[in-house]
Amino acid sequence: MTEQALDQIEAFNLSGAHAVEEQAVDAYERDGVVCLRQAVSAEWLAEIEPGIDEALSGGSADLDIVQIKGDTGRFSFSSQAWRQVEPFRRFIFESPLPDLCWPFLQSETLTLFYDFLLIKEAGSNSASTPWHQDQAYYPLRGRKIINCWTALDPIPLETALRFHKGSHAEGTVYRATNFSNTAQDYKHARHERPIMPDIDNDPDAVILRTAMEPGDMLIWNGCTFHSAPGNTLDQRRAAFSINWTGDDVTYEDVPSLETYRDPALKTGDRIEGEKFPQVRPHS
């Protein structure tokens, strides 16, 4: 692996603030990722926790719990649980979250795409997440797609996410990465898309990361390359993320991506409806 420049994700402290600073949006536009410190209060973090067991025991529309051979801990991830898990629904729709995230899309509207819970238990040493773009997995077209990722536990640098600075800028969507075996194609790979660049061996890549505390939030663009190591610590490493879309995003019907399908939508439609509700502006 080529030695690369490491830098800090630019961070903004939201403690007591009622709005996102313009400088935070500028940093997001430049780097493809930004950190909002104390974005989620302790009260709203406590709202999320009761929903975790429910999501992991049948409340999620799409759930995977993986234990890699040799690890003592598991890697669990749940998506699209908000319609079944009431604590998740309340957090998404009733907390300040939508108004914190909306400015980064520079959009007249804010639409919920889906929620995603990630838990790397203590001892899930091998549960690394390879370099990828979120948008490579989505049946969506457009640029206004963001992931708002809230830390539920302390996350020191050794288990922190890593981002390729500015990698969102060209807007190219690359072929999706196979998380379980990077030597094999992802089962829904779009072969008309270019192959992922070798970021680990790119000497010009600047890698951004930051330690986080519970309630800190990362916001990144759907095209920003990112990765994460396994959890070698003796504590849980969990996050709850929400993916939002703006007013340039349209739906692309991909039958194999059943989790993201809405039978009421066809290719070219704006992504909006019962499964993907518009949250801002209020009707």
Task: Write a concise keyword list for the protein shown above.
alpha+beta; 283 residues; Jelly Rolls
Question: How is this fold's topology laid out?
Answer:
Layout: E1 5-8, E2 11-13, H1 22-31, E3 33-37, H2 42-59, E4 62-66, E5 75-79, H3 86-94, H4 97-105, E6 110-120, E7 129-132, E8 140-141, E9 145-151, E10 162-164, E11 206-209, E12 217-221, E13 226-228, E14 237-245, E15 250-251, E16 278-280
Parallel strand pairs: 1-11, 2-3
Antiparallel strand pairs: 3-12, 4-5, 5-6, 6-14, 6-16, 7-13, 8-15, 9-12, 9-14, 10-11, 10-13
Helix pairs in contact: 2-3
Walkthrough of the structure:
- This protein is of the alpha+beta class.
- It has a single domain, classed as q2cbj1_9rhob like domain (Jelly Rolls).
- 16% of the residues lie in helices and 27% in strands.
- It contains 4 helices and 16 strands.
- Strands 2, 3, 4, 5, 6, 9, 12, 14 and 16 form a 9-stranded mixed β-sheet that branches. A 5-stranded mixed β-sheet has the order 1-11-10-13-7, with no helix packed on it. A two-stranded antiparallel ribbon has the order 8-15.
- Helix 1 links the parallel strand 2 and strand 3.
- Helix 2 (42-59) packs across helix 3 (86-94).
- The N and C termini lie far apart (51 Å).
- 40% of the residues are buried.
